[in-house]
Amino acid sequence: MYKKLLILIVLVFILISCNKTESGFSIYLTETNIPIHKAKLLRIHDVSLKGKPIISINDINLYNSEQHLIGLKEDALNRLQKMHISLEGKSFVVCVGKKRIYNGWFYSSLSSVSFDGIVIVKDYIDNSPFMKIQLGYPDKRFYHGEDPRRQQVIIENLKKHGKLISK
To answer: Which residues of the chain have pLDDT under 70?
Structure first.
């Protein structure tokens, strides 16, 4: 009897923790890395995501919606600092819950290749508790198109979880 009750309690905690992660803003690495030169061919709904997000809503202290700076908790910073980024980048998908919103690449500042996409420059994370989701590399002059970071579903979700600041 006690064993069944213990198993039930453990299952409830697992379900609750999964729902917290899956209901919020998150960043997943792709199962197979997609090099940046194939970015224009990428259809985010056709890409397999790794099992757990590299960043979940629970890893975020704050999200500045004007600059797209994300203040991260120490565990998340450590995870990102240990991640290896090749000069071709490391592909990711931003999700809200299970809905895929946009794709991007972790990038190294050692790269001399400009890029017309969404980028998180990993090297900046190594020296700061913040991560910036930016348009283009090395800067926004190289980005063309609409800004997917400002989608209402993202802003509302971050606000709902108490993570959003706008200054």
So the answer is: 1-22, 167
